[in-house]
Specification:
221 residues, Tetrahydropterin Synthase, Chain A, 2 domains, 9-stranded mixed sheet, elongated
Length: 221
């Protein structure tokens, strides 16, 4: 090594989750210049943050946005369920609705949501179309009442999904209803990518629940 060349010593830098996850440590990185971490992504299992083993198939992605008190600060990028786990939600003699669209939150944040809901028993295409409309309306309306942290907290606690399931059960018995992925996007990224759903109230049933059940039973016969 040439004389007079200074060699920076590497050190371990803690990477912290944002406030919505109580600034928990996501891990450490061994670097010479901590500021070089800015812009990098970190992905961890949701089980790491909640301590719940059943959440290990859900991965949460963060982006390092700066340094504070010698530690790396992050912001949440999104959440994704492993494909193998999503497949387990859909079993035989069930119909599913998988969708992808963008909604706006109360604080002006845009989020791309990919819900996955299933019915008990197979249903007709007309009923699936009705359920899809209700699902989209519920998600767009509910999300518009929440800021970013509130949205994340309710999805992680499954309260957001629970409300969706209760809404759809008014029309037809439902199986698992979940969010297989969400991703925060900028307004520029959202523009022209996917339709941004407006926060509107769910439409009234296109037909009585009794008629829907009879139609479904006939389709299964």
């Amino acid at each position: 090594m040439a004389k007079g060349v200074a060699v920076k010593k590497k050190k371990w830098v803690s990477i912290l989750a944002p406030a919505v996850f109580d600034f928990q440590e996501l891990g450490e990185s061994h670097v010479a210049a901590p500021e070089d971490l800015v812009g990098r992504n970190v992905s961890v299992s949701l089980m790491t943050l909640t301590g719940e083993p059943q959440r290990q198939s859900i991965h949460v992605k963060f982006k390092i946005v700066g340094m504070k008190d010698g530690k790396a600060a992050t912001e949440l990028v999104g959440l994704r369920m492993l494909a193998s786990s999503a497949k387990k939600l859909v079993r035989r003699r069930r119909s599913k609705i998988a969708d992808s669209f963008i909604v706006s939150l109360k604080d002006g944040t845009f989020v791309r949501i990919k819900p996955l809901v299933t019915t008990r028993g197979t249903v007709t295409s007309a009923l699936l179309s009705d359920l899809r409309k209700r699902m989209r309306a519920y998600i767009a309306q509910y999300a518009n009442k929440l800021d970013k942290d509130e949205f994340v907290r309710l999805v992680v606690q499954k309260k957001f999904q629970g409300g969706l399931a209760r809404t759809l059960k008014k029309v037809h018995p439902m199986g698992p209803c979940d969010i297989r992925e969400f991703l925060f996007v900028s307004k520029e990224q959202a523009k022209g990518k996917l339709r941004i759903l407006p926060p509107k109230a769910p439409e009234k049933p296109s037909e009585p629940a009794e008629a829907v059940e009879k139609e479904t039973a006939a389709a299964q016969a």
